[in-house]
Design a protein that fits this description.
By secondary structure, this protein is α/β, with parallel strands linked by helices. Helix content is 36%, strand content 23%.
């Protein structure tokens, strides 16, 4: 059993229940539906396959929808491939004129308004670098800094420009409604630039009577400038290293990863590290040494979860990729648990101040008495989240009567969520926990466990009791 959570992207590489079941067996906790690819009907079929496994498997599994966001791309070009040489010039236009040699269109209608002279224009993940020279009403003249073969429909990044396009496109709003209708657990917002964009989405889903947790994908320079506001607004942060590496100095990305993970730890928010974790496993049954080191370092940076993208969506070895992360996490976590633990106090809202203080105390108590497991009744998931951020060295069994909350707790480091009816009192809660931990061989008779709950049990915000208990069997 590992504490690091694994997020796996669904796609052609893992579209059947049989493969999905094997991935869950090998540690996958959250499945991602990437709305940038495929139709809603295709995503519905993938979700149906996940639900088949959910009904049969005792492991709690969540589903995350990932919104596409404002993807800026080149239009079709003519000829189909243009060779751009350094110091040559090219015009990018937004009108309906026909493309030709030296003139290419874009799907972003405000391109000529947002891109100023001197701004960089990066194409195809930065493989081609342009510099804007002259801005017109419907076109921008650019000089080629780094040339290469230019292809139709390649993505455009504008790291120096203030992009006016909204983070949530009309297509995204359709996906949001679909996510609500299909009871998804998480919704990730791409190209977040401020906390206000997260709040706008939250207000919309709350009006629909939904409590999907919101994930802010950090992949722009503007997001780094507004990290404090974004962390406050979001439920989860996702460090999208691929786009960050295009928008910013690539050498800064590892430091940004550490900074965000530590900020999330201090503020009690889960952090997901994503992009090319095991990229070589798209085509190979084993990873490179560098990928293993990168994965281990992400865990040591206090990431709560690691995300697989192409490795599972289109890769040949989706189960092996999950198994590889599981093994790396097993070894890395054992190393971390042997070290001298430091339990930071988590900054949180006034309403959760007592719960945060208790989480800090539970971590210390668990170490001092060599407890084997912590069990918490967490009706809304807040107590489990704060215990998770304390990085307790033992598993955290988190119980709730709310099935969605249990699925959402699947993303928390070290947490084993289980859905149960609300116990009448502390004695019944203790019996419930004993039955569960002995049934799964998580502890033995006579082992010490720590119970955390409140009175009355099941009422949010009442967590106020810590009980040290010897398992009777």
């Amino acid at each position: 059993m590992i504490k690091t959570k694994i997020v796996a992207t669904l796609g052609p590489g893992c579209s059947k229940a049989q493969t999905i079941r094997l991935m869950v067996d090998n540690g996958v906790d959250v499945f991602r539906l990437n709305f940038s690819h495929g139709t809603l009907a295709e995503h519905a079929e993938l979700l149906a396959q996940v639900n088949i496994v959910r009904r049969e498997h005792q492991h709690t599994v969540a589903v995350m929808g990932d919104l596409c966001g404002p993807k800026i791309r080149l239009s079709d070009i003519e000829p189909p491939i243009q060779q751009l040489d350094a110091d040559s010039e090219i015009v990018i236009f937004t009108s309906d004129e026909q493309p030709r040699e030296g003139f290419v269109g874009t799907n972003y209608k405000d391109f000529a308004r947002d891109v100023k002279a001197g701004d960089r224009v990066l194409i195809d993940d930065g493989q081609i670098v342009l510099r804007a020279v002259e801005q017109g009403a419907d076109r921008v003249l650019c000089r080629v800094v780094v040339g290469g073969a230019l292809h139709s429909r390649k993505g455009i990044s504008l790291p120096d420009s203030k992009v006016s396009a909204p983070s949530i496109t009309p297509t995204d709003w359709q996906c949001v409604d679909w996510a609500i209708e299909n009871n998804l657990d998480f919704l990730a917002l791409s190209f977040v630039r401020s906390g206000g964009e997260i709040r706008q989405l939250r207000q919309y889903i709350q009006k629909k009577g939904c409590d999907i947790k919101l994930v802010a994908k950090i992949e722009t320079a503007a997001a780094i400038e507004n990290l404090d506001d974004i962390i406050d607004a979001a439920d989860v942060l996702l460090i999208a290293r691929g786009d960050l590496g295009v928008e910013m100095d690539l050498a800064e990305v590892p430091l940004i990863q550490k900074r965000i993970a530590h900020m999330c730890r201090d503020r009690g928010k889960p952090a997901i590290v994503a992009t090319q974790m095991l990229q070589s496993m798209i085509d190979s049954p084993s990873p490179t040494r560098a990928e293993v080191s990168d994965t281990a370092n992400a865990i040591m940076d206090f990431a709560d979860a690691l995300m697989l993208s192409g490795e599972t969506a289109v890769g040949k070895y989706p189960v092996e990729a999950a198994k590889t992360i599981q093994r790396i996490a097993q070894v890395t976590e054992a190393y971390l648990d042997e070290g001298k633990a430091v339990y930071p106090r988590v900054a949180t809202s006034d309403q959760l101040l007592v719960t945060a203080a208790m989480a800090h105390s539970v971590a210390q108590i668990t170490e001092d008495i060599d407890a084997r497991l912590v069990a918490v009744w967490s009706q809304t998931g807040s107590a489990a989240r704060l215990l998770s951020k304390a990085r307790i060295g033992v598993p955290i069994l988190a119980l709730s009567s709310n099935e969605r909350i249990c699925r959402q707790m699947s993303l928390h480091y070290g947490v084993i969520p289980r859905c149960r009816a609300v116990p009448a009192d502390m004695q019944q809660f203790t019996s419930m926990v004993e039955e569960l931990v002995l049934q799964h061989n998580w502890v033995c008779k006579g082992d010490i466990i720590v119970l955390v709950a409140g009175q009355p049990i099941g009422v949010p915000g009442t967590t106020n009791a810590i009980v040290v208990h010897s398992v009777r069997g």
